[in-house]
Amino acid sequence: MAAPLQLTRVEGGLSLVQDADGHIRLQDGPLRGFERRLVGRGPLDAVFLTQKISADTGISHALAAAIAWEHAANIPVAENGRQLREFLHGMSLVHAHLRHFYLNELSDYLPWSTLADYRGDAEVLQDLQSGLADKPKGDWTRQSFEHPFNDAERNRLWEHRAFAMRQLGLVQRMLAMLGGKYPMAMSIVPGGLNVTLTEQTLLKLRGYLAEVRRFLEEQALDDGMLLLRRYPALKALGRGVPDFLCTGSGEDEAAVEGALFPSGVLLADKLEPFAPVATESIQYAFYRIPPQGASSGMATVPQPDKAGAYSWIKAPRYQGKPMETGAFPRLVITYLSGVRMARPELVDELEKQLGGSIRQGNTVGGRLVARLGELAAIVERAETLLDQIDPAQPTVSRDIDPFHATGEGLALLESPAGSLQHRMILERGRIAHYDVISPSTWNGAPLDEQKQAGSLETALNRSPLNLADAAQQRTASRIVHSFAFSTTDAVQ
To answer: Domain residue spans in the chain?
Structure first.
């Protein structure tokens, strides 16, 4: 067995292991045990502690914990609070998508060594170029490789990357204004969002949003399309499992006209309504298989020496099938549903570029373009929300007692990397059971009892790869990054 391939720019770190038969598996972990650590705590702890699962999906986890709590305790949400939550969540998706493309993915296609040839007018890049020139060349040219971009395209990508950093700063300001700080949001509470809201706050948010929107509409998606044109192999590379899952914008958001993502399942090439019936296989995961007849609420027990196991990631299944989730399944299910932000022009362009039906487009190129393509729709929805918010109305429901409830709550929403589920069982105000199914758990799942792999493992093994070869190592990296995979999100 070859030495594991350690991938960079993956939250939590990730290694790929190739066995003697050439099969590639994810080497993940360690287990942090969030689900077990929450038992016995108050539900407010879940809102804050689950944000530590993953940086990009922290706000998604906080909202999911709050919604699960509200469902368990029958807590109403103030209308302003619901709208502010949706705005906050939307900006967290924008931040995650921009950061992932320009900081994580782009380096798989445009090597750092090309900065030495930058001839543009951006001062920040000139300064960076000068600073790197003083360093030993091997330190920043180690990952040099051939690329297909001409001089103008190379300069454009570098300048857009630098400008994207400014946009990230503006998005972070908006997230901090509503969340109290960022990346940990402190304002998410049962019943809404605990924030002081004024006309001046809304005016600032509109100004920041307008500048971010210009960048998204004029540059970001075009950069993704440029990569697709210059690397045509991405159109077929890394195809995952054929079945897709989207849990929608969340129950509270989906009830409002114009909610961003409808729920749905594409199963056996047929669009079906989504039902919360996911199960989790631990056949090849490092957990003790419970005795037959054990309660479904029984916590999984770690077993790191379990024979035959190779992953700390559980294997979620929907009607027994592994599902792909993320921006691409969202795009397909939204389009096929024919409602809300269907974005048919993006689907038409993708089908033209991919040379086939959008249903088979869950490749590296399809995922990359879908993620950047939904940015404009998110910002458009955010602008609508700002117009609906009334600063004179409360942002949190009053006269509620959320701390002594007994009940069960389920929260479903779409985080940056895909579908997220939190299930909370409360007994007299304390958490008796907690379960999280994250998008990276869906996509990064190991084999199950039927030897079905998750979408990422399927994509890595779709065509033979030799992880000892430098060029094919980059290919593997491109596949992993196309899922926006996070080890910390996959292994709670």
So the answer is: 5-110+147-490
